[in-house]
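Final report, closing paragraph on structural work. Over the funding period we assembled a curated collection of sequence-structure pairs, and we close with a single example.
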Amino acid sequence: QVQLVESGGGLVQPGGSLRLSCAASGRIFSINYMGWYRQVPGKRRELVASITSIGNTNYGDSVKGRFTISRDNAKNTVYLQMNSLKPEDTAVYYCNVVITAAPSVGNYWGQGTQVTVSS
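Its predicted structure, as stored:
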């Protein structure tokens, strides 16, 4: 099995920055897709950013130009650098990885980390 451990969430003032990390561990040969999603109560989980194994990135419209996703394949870790944070960025942020190579084929989610943007 694969475990995802997220870190870096917290309380920040509007205009501030945070960096989220998500480290995958277990029997992993390679990770195809790594992404960050977020969810607020009563709303659907939405894509924040994603990155493929070859570095292609995709961002939600609301975070373009402010957030940057990156990954370290040697560490099986994905990062989300969040700048110019706004109150509407407040949510629980979830890490997601998709593995298509044995022995740990599957779609995995982290436990979530709270990000609160407030003065």
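DSSP finds no helices and eleven strands in the chain. The mean pLDDT is 96. We thank the funder for supporting this effort.
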